[in-house]
């Protein structure tokens, strides 16, 4: 894959001035194959406001990937579907069967991922649903020699998502992006998670949303130049890493 880009559209951490911050997460991923909205934040009006400010047209989306069913990740879905009813929506089988039934009539195509990894487009796939409370899947980008993983809240554990991705592919996972769900973790649990990421070969991290201030500070200290700031409006080039 050529260089992919990721732009954070919704986050509780500020990034660029003039954009709204609320609890939740959403990001736009552009690859040569697809333009993907990863999660939709907690509020559709705020999501669309930020998209307009960043000159991003919802009608140009090919796919909406929903990591898990919590309100702060699916709250903006209706607003996107109203403007782009033909978009493909990707969820996993842990979502409510009532939501699954309703979405079948509200979007262009509905893809329901099981527990196995699922290719969605060239260079794009789901990790497959991992058991947690709630169950969750992450989006994997193939950057030629390495992989990037984007998680919503990483309820199964960010290190578990990385390990699942690496074992399914054999390629190193260099990028870990999104919510790492360490906001309620103590210092020892944070240190263990960071040590696991390092051991698994992750070299660049973009921790935001529910990662928590303490974990972000620890990640910044450990990763140094490999720590990339998140926040609303940040645009990150996921350059394929030459090994």
TrEMBL record:
Transmembrane segments: none
Source superkingdom: Bacteria
Short name of any one Pfam family annotated for the protein: Lactamase_B
Keywords per UniProt: Hydrolase
Organism for this UniProt entry: Thiocystis violascens (strain ATCC 17096 / DSM 198 / 6111)
Keyword Hydrolase in record: yes
InterPro entries per the UniProt record, alphabetical: DHPS-like_MBL-fold, Metallo-B-lactamas, Metallo-beta-lactamase_dom, RibonucZ/Hydroxyglut_hydro
Residue ranges of domain Metallo-beta-lactamase in the record: 23-209
UniProt name for this protein: Metal-dependent hydrolase, beta-lactamase superfamily II
Any one GO molecular function term: transferase activity
